[in-house]
Amino acid sequence: MRVRGGASSGSGIAMRLHPIDGDDPQAVRDALPAALDGIRPLALGFTPASDDVVPDGTAAVVATSGSSGVPKRVVLSASALRASAEATAARIGAGRWTLCLPAGYVAGLQVLVRSQLAGTDPTVVTGHLSPQAFVDATRDAAGADLYISLVPAQLATLIDAADDAEVLAALRAHRAILVGGQALSDSIRIRAMDLRVPLVHTYGSSETSGGCVYNGIALDGVRVGQVDDELRINGPMLASGYLGDPALTDRIFTTDEQGERWYRTGDRGFILDGEVEVHGRLDNVIVSGGINISLDRVERIVRTVPGLEQAVVLGKPDERWGESAIIFAPVPVGGDGRRMLEEARARVAAEIGKHARPVQLEGGELPMLASGKPDRELLRRMIHDVPPPSAGDPAL
Q1: Residue 183 pLDDT more than 80?
Q2: pLDDT tens figures, 48-85
Q3: Domain architecture of the chain: domains with CATH
């Protein structure tokens, strides 16, 4: 029996995966003890093939959200998940968590792992996290040290509702509110600080068993390096690799001259006085009129415009310039949208230059993934008039 993807364990024993519905938090929770004991590795978010086997010690294989391309299947060992959860507890404490993210994604899975290691029962919110659902969940867990993990869109909903005294009290009742999964706009972060919300901005990925840098500072046991402009991460919470893709595993997980294993994040960033600054994806660049433009940088500026805090900026073909930037945002079409676009163009021109100004704003509800992130791949398909993937498309 062969191991498809990931680094093999010293014993060389290969184990079969057991599919679990990642949308059923109770099913994942019930299966987690055996997974963390290395007895029954889980396949979350996909159905494994008959020859999909993993190294001894694997706890779970997590299918990435595919927000920017073809999903990958990340092999996570029990020791990696435990190391991440223990480092989080060492940094922010342990207590009772609220789960309002899909348990099949790494952020939701880690809420369950942290809860198990802390010996607490998580509060589970199913469906949309409305302000009232958040208040109710906080009230149900009263008397414990409270923690919750959110994506920025969920946090924005709660911050927008914080003029309600119950919502604000629920936000402040937590010891820590972890926010990650995508960039957090400065406006939301500042509003949270002004409201004295205990916000912890996390940086990490499925390949690091979830967030491993909290408010710019690496967790204990984690090292962040910089090679050229790329951030690289070393630590005990690194994934074993990618299921069924040893070539990708070897390219993304490298070993240095000292035998240390590093994860190549693909993110542009810097380390200043021990603090990690992330400046977007290295490959999220368009060429407009012969000039390279970082769409992540444009998006950060666009999100400073009131009303565009949740905007997504992508590239589109342009007959004159080759490529140009387009904004997608949940805003009404009409006068307000035109005003927002002009304000965004002015701010981008002032900070980057006229060549980087977005040319278009598409209003309306953004398509979202189950993880709570905008579905950037679907938006790209819309731009290029590519039909959505069918059931047999490997991108699912």
Answers
A1: no
A2: 998 899 999 999 999 985 544 567 899 999 999 999 99
A3: 14-277 (3.40.50.12780), 284-365 (3.30.300.30)
Residue 207 has pLDDT above 70, yes or no: yes
Other beta carbons within 10 angstroms of residue 383's beta carbon come to 15
Task: Give the position of tokens 């369950």.
Answer: 112
Q: Kindly give, in sequence order, each residue whose CB lies less than 8 Å from that of residue 85, ignoring residues fewer than 6 positions away.
A: 110, 113, 114, 117
Q: What is the Cβ-side half-sphere exposure of residue 8, based on CA atoms within 13 angstroms?
A: 11
- DSSP character at residue 121: P
Percent helix, percent strand, percent coil in the chain, to nearest 5: 30, 30, 40
In terms of pTM, does the model score above 0.85? no
Q: Residue 23: how many CB atoms within 10 A of its CB?
A: 15
Q: What is the mean pLDDT of residues 178-192?
A: 85
Dihedral class, residue 143 (left if φ above 0, else alpha if ψ from -120 to 50, else beta): left
**Closest Cα partner for 183 from 199, 202, 158, 198?**
202
The token pair at 386 is: 């590519």
> What is the DSSP secondary-structure string of 323-365?
EEEEEEES--SSHHHHHHHHHHHHHHHHHT-GGG---EEEESP
pLDDT at 257: 92
Higher pLDDT, 335 or 154: 154
What is the three-class DSSP state of 382?
A: helix
Q: Which residue has the tokens 């938090």?
A: 25
18-20 vs 42-44, strand pairing mode: parallel
Match 């900070």 to its residue by tokens.
351
Percent of the residues in the chain that have a pLDDT greater than 70, as a whole number? 91
Could you please report the per-residue DSSP string of 152-196? HHHHHHHHHTTTSHHHHHHHHTEEEEEE-SSPPPHHHHHHHHHTT
The pair of three-digit structure tokens given for residue 268, joined into one six-digit string = 């542009």
Angstrom distance (rounded) from CA 97 to CA 126: 14
The pLDDT value given to residue 334: 62
CB atoms within 10 A of CB 269: 20
Round to whole Å and give the CA distance between 277 and 344: 23
347 pLDDT higher than 50: yes
